[in-house]
Amino acid sequence: MAEAQGAFERNLKAGETLFTEGEQGNEMYLIRSGKVEISRSAGGQKKVLATLSEGSFLGEMAIVDDAPRSATAIAASDVSLLILDRAAFKAQLQENPMIEYLITSLVKRLRETNEQVKIMLQKDDVCRIAASLLAMGREKGVPDGSGVLVKGSFTQDSLADQVGVSKAKAGEIFEKLTKSGLVAFQPDGIKIPSVPDLEEFWRFATLKEKFKEM
Questions:
Q1: Which value, in Å, is the radius of gyration of the alpha carbons in the chain?
Q2: Residues 6+ apart with CB under 8 A from 197
Q3: What is the pLDDT of residue 5?
Q4: Mapping DSSP to helix (H, G, I), strand (E, B) and coil, where does residue 105 land?
Q5: Helix/strand/coil (H, E, C) string of 73-89?
Q6: In this predicted structure, what is the pLDDT of residue 2?
Q7: Of 4, 29, 2, nearest to 93 (Cα)?
Q8: DSSP-derived secondary structure letter, 58
Q9: Are the CB atoms for 86 and 63 separated by under 8 Å?
């Protein structure tokens, strides 16, 4: 890989940021020496997910599916990196369509897992349920009027289990969301009349939880 066209090196001092959650990524990295801390924000707080060391890859998800970075990477020590840009990476993948398909599928699964981790890291039950509904709407929702419909057989109990909220508490939350017109349970799935409104509600709930702890 070190000989691949488009690959080059980069060195970081301890504490320097390699990339930030939410920004676009055009490169992936191989750690040649040193350690990199991987973290993400949940409920306004930093959560460390892993510390990667020599021989580990990072940043590959963003150059496979062009989605924003799913986490923040900061040098935990002086670090030496080998860098491969998107063009060089995809040129190699195209030589074997099956490998390209497998990697793309794996990245999709990792994205879904990362989204679930982000949801579970939130302490507040309202935030977790709202974040889960938002993720479902964005990833699986199909246009339906001014909102989206997440097709499937869903129950409040199954959604409560999915995000680790008690069924009784989840029932109270879903009742409030339904009365507010943010969510509607239908025979063919879950209707989200306005994704922006639900996102605004989630942000409000997240800020409320954050400042409650101060």
A1: 20
A2: 181, 182
A3: 40
A4: helix
A5: EEECCCEEEEEEEHHHH
A6: 38
A7: 4
A8: E
A9: yes
- In Å, how far from its chain's centre is CA 14? 25
User: pLDDT means per 10 residues in the chain (214 residues)?
Assistant: 56 95 89 92 73 87 80 94 82 71 66 59 79 84 89 86 86 92 92 92 78 59
With beta carbons less than 8 A apart as the criterion, state whether 190 and 184 touch. yes
Give 145-174 as a DSSP string. Answer: TTEEEEES---HHHHHHHHT--HHHHHHHH
Question: What letter would DSSP give residue 15?
Answer: T
Where residue 27 falls (left for φ over 0; alpha for ψ -120 to 50; beta otherwise) is: beta
Q: Rounded to whole angstroms, what are the CA distances from 36 to 79, 89, 118, 138, 169?
A: 7, 22, 20, 30, 39
Stated length of the chain:
214
Q: Which pair of structure tokens corresponds to residue 90?
A: 């995809």
Domains and CATH numbers, the chain: 7-117 (2.60.120.10), 123-212 (1.10.10.10)
Note the Cα 112 to chain centre separation in Å: 7
